[in-house]
Design goal:
Blueprint lengths: L1 H27 L16 E6 L5 H9 L15 E6 L11 E6 H6 L12 H5 L2 E6 L8 E4 L6 H4 L6 H11 L2 E7 L7 H10 L2 H7 E6 L7 H19 L7 E3 L3 H6 L12 H12 L1 H64 L4 H21 L1 H15 L10 H19 L7 H30 L3 H15 L13
Parallel strand pairs: 1-5, 1-6, 2-4, 6-7, 7-8
Antiparallel strand pairs: 2-5, 3-4
Helix pairs in contact: 1-12, 1-16, 1-17, 6-7, 12-13, 12-14, 12-15, 12-16
The chain binds guanosine-5'-triphosphate and magnesium ion (MG).
The site of guanosine-5'-triphosphate has 25 residues, from helix 2 and helix 10.
């Protein structure tokens, strides 16, 4: 319990840090249209994908401990179903769906992280739903069951972009299970591609798990080895890598029992794999914390770099502007002087006050004209030239900076080109200071808390809870300080 509380507290603190420190600046300066916490604020999610009839729903039912999802031989399910926890009915009364919500409500409810999926339209909304279930398996995570992958022709009839939906969901998920059916160890090339493209290399590696399912249908051990070998070959073809990712083997015992095929002799030897898969899924909240910490670090770095670029540009523009205004001022003073001189020599005007005011008015007019035309034109030219050389705006000394720059370069360019935003250099400076502080202190403290969590004993956790509740009263301004004690 304390372990869960600690993880939840840590998760809340990370999300809170993002909400309070990164999102306001990200939205103000055009780094992101939506709050940065949108994708990460909800509970950890496990996305289950695979060909139709690969046994996704049967396996999920087995984890949940009840027949919640429909199963069947033909393509059975054409909906994305989010399965989450609800304890309003005790599990002793039977595990079941306690509440159901349709896609429209789900996409519009700010409590859930799905608003970004609205872009997939009405047809998708009609194939999206949520079920709340009183299964203890879902206490700390949610599972998303997906419609099975069909051939590419039938995919087109769905009325929404299935691959893109998968990619978007994978981005939000803490773990993606890719299921293969032992009988058709066919590939899921397209889904793999869309997930590969949406997740960055770093997050991809530790988020995806390949599962060879329905292994009870292999009649002999030789048969299993053949199927396993085919799958490895197919995977190396789609991943383009020689080192094959680990493949877990499992089956659904309930489905196997009704299939009436006698269980192969090797099955008991692989029971540990099933348990292993279950444990990996249950570990998702902890892995999710690592992802969250990385998310905070990456966006913290990028956002700081982004603001730095805006600051550098605006500073240069300001300098240029002052220089040109100074030139304009000189020209208008000279012009004013010339007017006074001409009035004196050509018209014979001698009264110094009249001369001064005539010169002054002349200088003012020239300055006005300067600001309205040449100054504006010069500034436009400066913007254009500077944007052509945008890569020199900020120093890019190492690979981290290179990576963050390549992630934000186009955003910075567009923002500056369209001359967006209404902020001062001073505001940029304050926000940059705040975000750098988050990058230096918060991320370090969060990593430390994550590191020590793994080795914390029950006693340590109790002690932590005691200290935390006594601190609750005088909550510090910096959220991460509540966790680190
Ligand atoms: N023998 C055996 N049969 C299984 C296993 N898993 C699923 N099945 C059977 O395979 C069929 C398809 O299972 P589902 O769980 O509906 O598969 P799915 O991947 O959810 O299919 P779609 O929702 O259509 O994409 C059902 O008739 C199940 O009873 C398994 O591990 N062993
Ligand atoms: Mg299904």
């Amino acid at each position: 319990m304390d372990r869960e509380n600690y993880m939840n507290a840590l998760r809340e603190d990370i999300v809170d840090t993002i909400t309070r420190h990164l999102t306001p600046a990200a939205r103000r300066y055009g780094y992101s249209d939506m709050p940065l916490e949108t994708n990460v604020k909800w509970r950890p999610m496990v996305l289950v994908i695979g060909n139709y009839s690969s046994g996704k729903s049967s396996l999920i039912n087995e984890f949940l401990g009840a027949k919640i999802q429909d199963t069947g031989q033909a393509p059975t399910d054409d909906s994305f179903t989010v399965l989450t926890y609800d304890d309003s009915v005790p599990e002793t009364e039977g595990i079941r769906v306690v509440e159901q919500r349709d896609g429209k409500a789900l996409l519009n409810d700010p409590e859930y992280p799905f608003s970004t999926l609205r872009k997939h339209g009405q047809r998708f909304a009609a194939h999206f739903q949520l079920k709340k279930i009183n299964s203890p398996f879902l206490k700390n995570l949610a599972i998303i069951d997906t419609p099975g992958m069909l051939d590419s022709i039938s995919e087109r009839d769905r009325g929404y972009d299935y691959q893109e939906v998968l990619g978007d969901l994978a981005q939000k998920a803490g773990l993606v299970l890719v299921l293969f059916d032992a009988h058709k160890a066919g590939t899921v090339r397209e889904a793999y591609k869309s997930i590969r493209e949406t997740l960055t290399a770093h997050t991809f590696e530790d988020r995806i798990i390949f599962v060879l399912n329905r292994i009870d249908e292999c009649t002999t051990f030789n048969d299993l080895l053949r199927v396993y070998g085919t799958l490895c070959w197919n995977l190396s073809q789609i991943t383009g890598r020689k080192d094959i990712p680990m493949i877990r083997m499992t089956y659904s015992s309930n489905a196997a029992a009704i299939s009436k095929v006698s269980a192969p002799a090797f099955l008991p030897l692989l029971e540990n794999q099933r348990e292993d898969l279950k444990q990996t899924i249950l570990q998702t909240p902890l892995r999710r914390l690592d992802h969250l910490a990385t998310y905070l670090e990456i966006h913290g770095e990028r956002l700081a770099h982004y603001i730095e670029a805006l600051q550098a540009f605006n500073l240069e523009l300001q300098k240029f502007r002052i220089q040109k205004i100074f030139i304009g001022l000189l020209i208008s003073l000279l012009g004013g002087g010339l007017i006074a001189f001409l009035l004196m020599t050509l018209v014979g005007m001698a009264d110094p006050t009249t001369l001064l005011s005539a010169g002054g008015i002349g200088a003012g007019l020239i300055m006005g004209l300067w600001l309205a035309f040449p100054q504006k034109k010069l500034e436009l030219k400066f913007r254009k030239n500077r944007l052509q050389d945008i890569d020199t705006l900020t120093p890019i000394a190492d690979q981290t900076r290179k990576d963050s720059w390549s992630a934000i370069r186009d955003l910075v360019y567009l923002h500056l080109k369209e001359n967006k935003g209404d902020y001062t250099l001073y505001e940029l400076k304050l926000d940059l200071f705040d975000i750098r502080q988050v990058n230096d202190d918060a991320t370090h403290d969060i990593r430390e808390a994550l590191g020590s969590f793994r080795s914390m004993s029950e006693h340590d956790l109790k002690e932590w809870r005691r200290k935390r509740s006594s601190r609750e009263a005088d909550k510090k301004d910096l959220p991460w300080q509540d966790v680190i004690i």
